[in-house]
Specification:
By secondary structure, the chain is mainly α. Helix content is 80%, strand content 0%. The protein contains three helices and no strands. Helix 1 packs antiparallel against helix 2. The model has no long low-confidence stretch (mean pLDDT 78).
Length: 64
């Protein structure tokens, strides 16, 4: 459990740095994909899913 949370944090920091630097290429995309898989298998997954569902509903409710 502790190892998977540490990997999630490490991959998240790495992905954030690559995105911020503007150099998200193949390596960065792979890091982001691995981060997604690790996040999906962590205890944070239900919370992230709730946030994304809420965001999607809010965006869908916007009238243009």
């Amino acid at each position: 459990m502790i190892i998977s949370v540490s990997l999630v944090l490490l991959m998240g920091i790495w992905a954030a740095l690559l995105i911020r630097r503007g150099s998200l290429r193949l390596g960065g995309a792979l890091v982001s994909a691995v981060f997604g898989f690790l996040l999906a298998s962590s205890e944070m997954a239900p919370g992230v899913n709730d946030i994304l569902t809420h965001l999607a509903r809010e965006i869908a409710d916007i009238d243009l």
